[in-house]
Design goal:
Blueprint (H helix, E strand, L loop, with lengths): L2 H26 L2 H22 L5 H19 L1 H17 L13 H8 L6 H11 L5 H7 L4 H17 L12 H20 L10 H17 L4 H14 L25 H15 L6 H14 L8 H14 L3 H15 L1 H10 L11 H12 L3 H14 L3 H14 L5
Helix pairs in contact: 1-2, 1-3, 1-5, 2-3, 6-8, 6-9, 7-8, 9-10, 9-11, 10-11, 11-12, 11-13, 12-13, 13-14, 14-15, 15-16, 16-17, 17-18, 18-19
Length: 415
């Protein structure tokens, strides 16, 4: 298959794979079996559809094929069938009744909550989400998390084993459980996005494909949970940040800071969509952390430049965010905003108060922010020391190159 027909078929597979896998996992209670028969159904479609054409209901065709493969496999292994039947009964018992929050049109919601279940290791949740809901192959997931393929394969196997052995049900939480469980799902997706927007290591500053995959996932979640304001907030936040992707690097891949970016290269369509979602995230009750962060991102995107940005409002929003989710990283970001509102000395005083925070000791943006403010205050030897500290912590080559240039500006004799 080549040309537009190929693209259409691939788009169908991409859209239907997660839905199919979720439905089969829910039906049979086994993620491995669900993955295997999902793959077999897609392989069968690759053979049949070029000859017969894409069926009017491709999802139904894939589901029928996959279920037949699963039933055939179970008939060949009675012990396996008995175990899966038990798991399926357990899952049915755990599922909320229709109308109680679990009767949803798309079973991917159940898979979102299974992959992000608090019983799983934190490092496994994102990997399993990319594997099952985004449809990435194990080597692709390994590249996403910058670990060897064998390591990632072990993580995925470990997570699936935990789901099986702990009898974690394939179900969405009821409405009474949702406030407790939803933040974990959102955190998994946001972690995937963050790695795409600001890579933790490697030759590139950004990995747009990973960020876009996270946006695709949260769009699915928004369709499944349209009334959840924090889902709207996360989508708004990611759109408003990702809209700047093309301006964040120069022609050679070098880092371009916010104040130096060509805002004409920002994606206005994406910004407008994000801006429409911010009132949805903030309305109807007390705001959540993602809604507040989206409001901060909106103020950046609406401003013509750094000088005309509404820094007092941004500081006020950081105050609110700190009340919702106290964090040294939020305090760091607030200090940077205070420096732009009240001057570098005020910002530096706040940063120095954070010097003992363990979470900031290995966090490159902290010494980078201190170095910048020290440089602006003319305290060049101290700025040079802070830039050297940041250089030792930076994860990507564009960040290191940027820091080397900044170091050379304050210490011409620096290596």
């Amino acid at each position: 298959m080549t040309g537009p027909h190929t693209e259409h078929v691939e788009a169908v597979f991409r859209e239907e794979r997660g839905r199919l896998l979720a439905a089969l996992a829910r039906r049979f209670g086994d993620l491995d079996l669900a993955e295997e028969v999902t793959s077999e159904a897609i392989e069968a479609a690759l053979v049949r559809w070029p000859v017969d054409g894409v069926p009017p209901r491709p999802g139904a065709w894939l589901m029928t094929t996959a279920r037949r493969r699963a039933v055939d496999r179970l008939r060949r292994d009675r012990a396996y069938a008995a175990r899966l039947a038990f798991l399926a009964v357990e899952a049915d018992r755990a599922a909320p009744p229709a109308g109680a929050g679990g009767d949803l049109p798309d079973e991917r919601l159940q898979l979102f909550f299974t992959c992000a279940h608090p019983a799983l290791n934190a490092e496994d949740r994102g990997a399993l989400t990319l594997r099952c809901l985004a449809g990435l192959a194990t080597p692709e997931v390994a590249r996403a998390f910058l670990v060897p393929e064998a390591t990632m394969a072990k993580r995925i196997v470990r997570a699936k084993r935990k789901i099986r052995e702990a009898r974690i049900p394939f179900r969405a939480p009821g409405r009474d459980e949702l406030p407790e469980r939803l933040p974990g799902v959102l955190q998994v997706i946001y972690s995937i996005f963050t790695e795409g927007y600001a890579a933790s290591a490697g030759p590139d500053l950004q990995r747009p494909d990973l960020a876009e995959e996270a946006i695709r996932l949260v769009r699915i979640l928004r369709r499944l949970l349209p009334a959840e304001r924090e889902v709207a907030g996360l989508l708004a936040l990611m759109l408003l940040i990702h809209a700047r992707r093309d301006a964040r690097t120069g022609p050679g891949g070098e880092l371009v800071l916010l104040g130096e970016q060509d805002r004409g290269r920002w994606d206005r369509t994406m910004i407008e969509e994000g801006l429409r979602l911010v009132p949805v995230a903030l309305g109807g009750g007390p705001p959540g952390p993602y809604g507040v962060q989206a409001a901060i991102a909106a103020l950046h995107d609406e401003a013509a430049d750094v000088a005309t940005t509404d820094w007092p409002q941004i500081v006020a929003l950081y105050d609110l965010l700190l009340a919702l989710t106290p964090s040294p990283v939020v305090e760091l970001n607030r200090a940077a905003a205070v420096a732009l509102r009240d001057g570098p000395e005020a910002g530096l005083a706040l940063l120095d108060e954070l010097a003992g925070e363990p979470r900031l000791r290995a966090y490159a943006p902290y010494p980078t922010a201190r170095a910048d403010l020290l440089q602006r205050l003319g305290r060049l030897p101290e700025a040079a020391a802070a830039y050297r500290e940041a250089l030792g912590l930076a994860g990507t080559e564009p960040e290191r190159a940027h820091l080397r240039r900044r170091l050379a500006a304050v210490d011409p004799d620096a290596d």
